[in-house]
Amino acid sequence: MKKHNFYAGPSILPQYTIEKSIEGIKDFAGTGLSILEISHRSKEFVACMNDTIALFRELLGIPEGYKVLFLGGGASMQFCMVPMNLMEKKAAYLNTGEWAGKALKEAKLFGEAVEVASSKEKLFNYIPKNYTVPADADYFHITTNNTIYGTEIKKDIDCSVPLVADMSSDIFSRPVDISKYALIYGGAQKNLAPAGVTFVIVKESVLGKVTRPLPSMLDYRVHIKGESMFNTPPVFAVFAAQQTLRWLKELGGVKAIQKKNIEKAAVLYNEIDRNKLFRATIADPEDRSLMNICWVMSDNYKELEKPFADFAKSKGMLGIEGHRSVGGFRASTYNALPQESVEALVSVMKEFESKN
Ligand SMILES: *Cc1c(COP(=O)(O)O)cnc(C)c1O
After folding, report:
1. SS3 for the chain, per residue?
2. Which CATH number is 253-355 given?
3. Which CATH number fits domain 15-251: 3.10.20.30, 3.40.640.10, 3.30.450.30, 3.40.710.10?
4. Can you list the residues of the chain whose pLDDT is less than 50?
């Protein structure tokens, strides 16, 4: 039976990436060695790193004055690295979920981190809209896609202070106006690569302003100077990212994939809204994530949660349980997920409705 991969992360990768990864594991770039056993200083890997960065820049339209870095440590490492490098006194945070809250917690270690707004009282089921960012904040931090709760800020917001965004789970899902941001970061394991590599897009002019001493490994300028090779980069994950970016370019880039993502999400949200057994947790279409679609059983059918989970699993739908902190269901519809998988899930939902 065909398996449909709705896991939130690590998550589905294009079949192209999987196949090219297998080839690279057997013989990387004609070296006769595996990508798993080759020096990161070899000319073949340096070429791979440079090409991956070039594709990254090209596909997102990253302007001059910005650097792209591939680091270790996950998006979670950026929760401390961002304030260490950018906050002298004060920073502002929008609290839209668990990851946003974790980022805010780390920032408090380095200065006055203020929460400008939070949707916590409503289980993070909307994106706060009316808030004021203090004019003296060194930066304003947002999480564009809230992987756990299924809300997303789908437009690049205007901000009077430098804007920092965690785009772990929606990078490359839509065109982004990079010039509106001072820094964008994310773990690559949601929409780009296997776990192990973290991307950072940083405007060089925002660096070098803080007075605190920075450990080398946590200083963006050190990694810029080292061209992401200050220490051993996650070689295999970077190689896999290169394959995904090639796949995306071939497909027509972020604009083309955005169109597909909108279509996929519409099919699933329409079924959740139509099906009497289910209710979407995010009511406002403007706030609904195109990457992580969350729903629960309707009030009259609560007892069918476990039976539906079992039924869906028996039909090859994998990874649709909601995050352990919220329950219910979540289907992640990242770039690599084919429309066919969404349609298969919708059929399962309809079939389950007709049986109940
Ligand atoms: C998954 C995720 C993280 C955590 O990423 P790690 O690489 O595991 O540290 C942070 N933010 C968002 C939005 C995520 O989806």
Report:
1. CCCEECCCCCCCCCHHHHHHHHHHHHCCCCCCCCHHHCCCCCHHHHHHHHHHHHHHHHHHCCCCCEEEEEECCHHHHHHHHHHHHHCCCEEEEEECCHHHHHHHHHHCCCCEEEEEEECHHHCCCCCCCCCCCCCCCCCEEEECEECCCCEECCCCCCCCCCEEEECCCCCCCCCCCHHHCCEEEEECCCCCCCCCCEEEEEEHHHCCCCCCCCCHHHCHHHHHHCCCCCCCCCHHHHHHHHHHHHHHHHHCHHHHHHHHHHHHHHHHHHHHHHCCCEEECCCCHHHECCCEEEEEECHHHHHHHHHHHHHHHHCCEECCECCCCCCCEEEECCCCCCHHHHHHHHHHHHHHHHHC
2. 3.90.1150.10
3. 3.40.640.10
4. none
